[in-house]
Specification:
elongated
Length: about 200
């Protein structure tokens, strides 16, 4: 086991926790719980971004083979999904927390279906979980499991990873669509409103 695993493990733990919290957001049916959980998620996401950026920045500034250099090399795969998190996910989590706060005046206020659909949006959960998988993939060689050192295993491992990411994305998309449909008004209500005469 390499020493830079001690650097990668806290980063991986933060991203994994963020992925788990994001995955549970759509199941929350109370606005106050949704607001509290999005607060936790914001803290985890910002911590994960700060840790990842710090390790990568230190690794880029030095050309040696120190512990932080090897840790930064393990995080290169996670740089792209972490950038998506910084650009897309952070903004959506802030909007979701503000929306939940508007309904969280009472402890038992139900979370509106539209907010739950927004919590299930793929751009919240998918980038976080892909980043967590990428950090874990970078931590495996430090733990003594280097899949890229054996060509016979590299191809199947990459295929399984890509299929896993696709499956996660499809799951998020299906759940978001299901909750978004519940947020729509019934068709009968829409047709009744359309048939109602206008009063001036």
């Amino acid at each position: 086991m390499d020493e830079h695993l001690t650097v990668l493990l806290p980063v991986a733990a933060v991203w994994l926790a963020a992925g788990v919290v994001a995955d549970g957001l759509p199941r929350l049916d109370r606005a106050r719980a949704l607001r509290r959980r999005t607060g936790w998620l914001s803290a985890l996401v910002l911590t994960g971004l700060a840790l990842t950026a710090a390790v990568l920045a230190v690794g880029l500034q030095s050309a040696g083979t120190t512990v932080l250099d090897r840790a930064a090399a393990g995080l290169t795969l996670a740089a792209a999904p972490a950038l998506v998190v910084a650009v897309c996910t952070v903004r959506r989590v802030r909007w979701l927390r503000a929306g939940a706060g508007a309904f969280a005046t009472a402890p038992d206020t139900p979370a509106p279906p539209g907010l739950r659909a927004a919590a299930a949006h793929p751009l919240i959960g998918l980038p976080l979980q892909v980043t967590a998988l990428a950090v874990l993939g970078g931590a495996l060689p430090a733990a003594g499991v280097d899949l890229f050192a054996r060509p016979a295993v590299t191809g199947p491992a990459i295929t399984v990873a890509v299929l896993g990411v696709i499956a996660i994305g499809v799951r998020h998309a299906l759940r978001h669509n299901r909750l978004a449909e519940r947020a729509l008004p019934p068709a009968a209500t829409l047709s009744a409103r359309a048939a109602r005469p206008l009063h001036v």
